[in-house]
Amino acid sequence: MTVALARRALAEFVGTAFLVATVVGSGIAAVRLSPHDVGLQLLENSLVTGAALVALILALQPVSAAFNPVVSMVERLLGELDNLAAIVLIASQVAGGCLGAIVANLMFGLPAVTLSAHHRTGAGLWLAEVVATFGLVLLVLATLRGDRADRVAYVVGGYIVAAYWFTSSTSFANPAVTIARTLSDSFAGIAPRSAPMFVLMQVVGGLLGLAVIRGLHPATKDSPEPSALDQGAVHD
């Protein structure tokens, strides 16, 4: 592994850890602060997550700010990553996400790991994950191909806050975050048996986003495929 790849892996590990700690931690805090109002709990959870995403992408973008295996998968398909880099970055994202969930549990006095009993299943939720991930990949790549890399953080943060509300699944849109959220039996958790279908639908959504962006912004010899990872991309 090169030094450059190691630095990117560290950025992905730390960034995804903070992202999941934000999602899980704010979910736990929301339930405790607003125990009788689920709508307010979701509002608190979504706003905090969106704000954290903006901050994390802005800070880590110069090194690597994907925090999402679907984004890394898309980068591999675009030829911006080789197999080793994709594997290392995705592994870092998943490991960082799991650490973030554990830390969030501990911060709120819960066991380090408690598998979630929150089952999330059904055609509507699966479709929602396709839509959420499709939208995320589409907006990230469209922003980058429009030479507006400096705005990616705001695009991602704003989109995720909105997607929490307009998708029935509350927009997981990230396999690393999905896996990590199985480790917390809290507001943001997802039962382990529900996670595989969520991840599959996220991959489908990512591939659809890639297909559409290639139609909207086809690469040419004079306009090569941009690297979303190098310029910052995500999610939740």
TrEMBL record:
Main localization (coarse): membrane
Keyword check for S-adenosyl-L-methionine: no
Subcellular location as annotated: Membrane
Source species, domain of life: Bacteria
Positions of transmembrane segments: 9-31, 51-71, 83-103, 123-144, 195-213
Membrane topology: Multi-pass membrane protein
Pfam families reported for this sequence: MIP
Keywords: Membrane, Transmembrane, Transmembrane helix, Transport
Family: Belongs to the MIP/aquaporin (TC 1.A.8) family.
The protein, known as: Aquaporin
